[in-house]
Amino acid sequence: MDSNYQQSSAGQPVNAKPSQTANAKPIPRTPDHEIQGSKEALIQDLERKLKCKDTLLHNGNQRLTYEEKMARRLLGPQNAAAVFQAQDDSGAQDSQQHNSEHARLQVPTSQVRSRSTSRGDVNDQDAIQEKFYPPRFIQVPENMSIDEGRFCRMDFKVSGLPAPDVSWYLNGRPVQSDDLHKMIVSEKGLHSLIFEVVRASDAGAYACVAKNRAGEATFTVQLDVLAKEHKRAPMFIYKPQSKKVLEGDSVKLECQISAIPPPKLFWKRNNEMVQFNTDRISLYQDNTGRVTLLIKDVNKKDAGWYTVSAVNEAGVTTCNTRLDVTARPNQTLPAPKQLRVRPTFSKYLALNGKGLNVKQAFNPEGEFQRLAAQSGLYESEEL
User: Fold this and answer.
1) Looking at the chain, which residues constitute the CATH 2.60.40.10 domain(s)?
2) φ, ψ at 315 (rounded to 5°)
3) Quick one: which H or E segment has residue 34?
4) Rounded to whole angstroms, how far apart are CA atoms 30 and 178?
5) In what order do the strands lie in the sheet with 181-185?
6) Which of 105, 127, 275, 377 is 20 to 30 A (C-alpha) from 355?
7) Of the CATH numbers 3.40.190.290, 3.40.50.12280, 2.60.40.10, 2.140.10.30, which one belongs to the domain with range 134-226?
8) Which of 189, 136, 132 is nearest to 162 (CA)?
9) Residue 164: is the preceding peptide bond cis (ω within 30°)?
10) In tens digits, what is the pLDDT along the chain, a chain of 383 residues?
11) CATH number for region 232-326
12) Residue 296 near residue 290 (C-beta atoms within 8 A)
């Protein structure tokens, strides 16, 4: 009994399991035709799968499939680990064939993740490239006419993917942003070219160009700048002159005025407004600034002080003149006409233009005596 005890203590027990710390040796591979349909065939098939399995870490531990768990139960943990370390030729060839079929390699987890990320980026880029759209103008401004010195704004909308870059050109020259020219984009995608103060040099054809990776689009708008008019207060080039006329005549009060813009004219007579466009009084004005006040059939009421006023946005000017109206002198009588005396059958017949003494001719006594002597009649005493 003692010898048996010592022998058993000196050596290992018969039924003792091999130590787990001992190095496990690779299991020799049996040809497939010998083990076909047996348990060893299943084990060798599992070994091939374990060699080529691309495992992922989950919370720092290996994630085992059902087949891997079965292999561990059949071969033991050490033998299953030895399967991964086996480098025999047949196993390497099988691994290469399997890798070529499935296009998979065993790589560290960090590398697998980075590759998947890079593949995702490539896929994302492909998706973005597929969504590129060329620029297209949805809203464009119309041609404009703006007064010099005014504010101006050109609004437009453009679509495209990615968002296009916008550039402006004036008569082929690039438009730069400065204190008087600004290019802005609102939150709603409304683009604007703003002129704080329009100048004469801003006039011309504006071309707007929108570009992105997919293409470009262009529209053109015309901007006309109306030159600012320089204002000048009215001034008399020559003033109306005082005049003296006779009643019934016509008279013109004339002057010439220079002003920008053309002024409005007002005429007064003795501080009362003169009524124009009547049968007697008319006002005429031409493009050169000549002004004429015409008065026909002048009478005493038309006499007095006349004031002409010219008014525009820049100022006002006035001038006074005098109109005197005098009565016409008395008319001289025309020379009398010579009267011709016709002969009559009367006592004046004896005159007959012979130059007789009129006194004797008009003496009744002498006339009676002469007629009596010629007729031979005598005076009767009875008479």
Assistant:
1) 134-226, 232-326
2) 165, -165
3) helix 32-35
4) 87
5) 133-139, 152-161, 190-195, 181-185
6) 377
7) 2.60.40.10
8) 132
9) no
10) 444 444 444 444 444 444 444 455 555 666 666 666 677 777 777 777 766 554 544 445 556 677 777 777 777 666 655 555 554 444 555 545 544 444 443 444 444 444 445 555 555 555 545 688 999 999 999 999 999 989 999 999 999 998 999 999 999 999 999 989 999 998 888 999 999 999 999 999 999 999 999 999 999 999 999 987 788 899 999 999 999 999 999 999 999 999 988 999 999 999 999 988 888 999 999 988 999 999 999 999 999 999 999 999 889 999 999 999 998 876 555 666 666 656 555 555 555 555 555 555 555 555 555 655 555 555 555 54
11) 2.60.40.10
12) no
Helix (H, G, I), strand (E, B) or coil at 126: helix
The pTM score is 0.35
Token output for 382:
């009875």
DSSP 16-69: PPPPTTSPPPPPPPPPHHHHTTSHHHHHHHHHHHHHH----EETTEE---HHHH
Residues in the chain: 383
Give the closest residue to 154 by CA, choosing from 113, 82, 208.
208
Q: Which two tokens stand for residue 143?
A: 């041609």
